Amino acid sequence: MQYRCTECDHVTAKWVGRCPECGTWGTVEQAPVLTAAGGRSHRAVAPASAAVSISAVAADNTRHFPTGVSELDRVLGGGIVPGSVTLLAGEPGVGKSTLLLEVVHRWAETGRRALYISGEESAGQIRMRAERTGCTHSDVFLAAESDLDTVFAHLEAVKPTLVVVDSVQTLSTTDTDGVTGGVTQVRAITTALTSYAKAASNPAVAMVLVGHVTKDGAIAGPRSLEHLVDVVLHFEGDRNTALRMVRGVKNRFGASDEVGCFMLHDNGIECVADPSGLFMDQRPEPVPGTAVTVTMDGKRPLIGEIQALVGTATAPSPRRAVSGLDQSRAAMTAAVLENRAGLPLGQRDIYLSTVGGMRLTDPSSDLAVALAIASSFADLCLPASTVVIGEVGLAGDLRRVTGIERRLAEAARLGFTTALIPPGAKTTPPGLRTLEVATVGEALKALLRIAHQPTSKPPEVKPAARPGLKLVDGAPGRSPAGDNGQP
């Protein structure tokens, strides 16, 4: 007998609590020793059903059925496929139960039965939340169960076409050893539910399983759990904002890089078809230190605004505070501005933030970060109709990013008239003027050409206190007189 890790398949001769290969606790289980294929004889067994041509398989039974929640249907590729198993994972309190209660309500409104099984709440608690969110349809059935055999009895009695299990870590079965929520129990329960959904006698049953996550954001349970199901979705959100996102990680029936946006309120959850307005600060006039960019979240272009604030040169150890951006890339961009463009930022505090709780990890926002810092440093404003897209290299060069045409089309759709981008764009949408720049220095020169002083600038602020950018040895930089403009 041997022991195998369920995470990395490492094999040991004896049981250990922690896998010596991947370092994961509680994943080493007993496994039978496999013999060589040549040492055994194979016996042909008559199949239960004959193999058929792929062209003879009816496709009507496996098409997408819309759930009625447009943003979720977008991520799923058009809806839920009968016989499929979907795993929805997210942090506690992010809104998984609220979203799925809305899904079963919309499902029941089309004349189909839905069964909501909860191992964490009673039926009365679910009814209380359903009344608050307006999801009290008579074709939605509730069951508070944690035993797998009892769950199957409910499935046979109700005959639903959609089943929600909230959550798979709370169910248990007496046919398998292990504690509730353990690796062995979760794998056995998921396997049993998947086999039930895909059985020939239940061709129209689709299942949605709710999964817990660990403290580092990974789905709790064995890694093989994601291989057993057909669709894996991550429900993300910040507790400080109402914005929620459903991100596709795996999808056997559609694209696996789609993103759906929602707003979580006290009375339920609603879809956000055009979330770009959530990530921009609405103001009548532009202010220094802001730049707008277009990021790609999966296949979805989103408009985001970056705000920067450059402090005075007083602290010996300057502070770099970043919110919503990759801190390492922001520090790299500031270093490129100082060494390649001549901006003396080494002794200054720099604060960077995004608007609306947006997270920008796409390198295409590097140029927007650079121009936001330069705009705050020189007290200049980018026009509100200008969008900035581009990746900054360590040599000060600008690199093209993927999906530039889709980004420009989104910017033109939202009314932007000028785009500052790296060279190489093949097509430009009508009504959008593109300014191609090859280096950070050229981008700062373009900033000097298109920027204007804000009309709300206080009259007591003297121009000498915040001198503008000027060309120093062919590159934009500060006046050589000194950092405060004094000789």
UniProtKB/TrEMBL annotation:
Residues 349-487 are annotated as: Lon-protease-like. GO terms for molecular function: ATP binding; ATP-dependent DNA damage sensor activity; damaged DNA binding; hydrolase activity; zinc ion binding. Pfam families: AAA_25, ChlI, Zn_ribbon_LapB. Keywords: ATP-binding, DNA damage, DNA repair, DNA-binding, Hydrolase, Metal-binding, Nucleotide-binding, Stress response, Zinc, Zinc-finger. A motif (RadA KNRFG motif) lies at residues 250-254. GO terms for biological process: recombinational repair. ATP binds at G90, E91, P92, G93, V94, G95, K96, S97. Plays a role in repairing double-strand DNA breaks, probably involving stabilizing or processing branched DNA or blocked replication forks. HAMAP family: RadA_bact (MF_01498). Belongs to the RecA family. RadA subfamily. This is DNA repair protein RadA. It comes from Mycolicibacterium chitae.
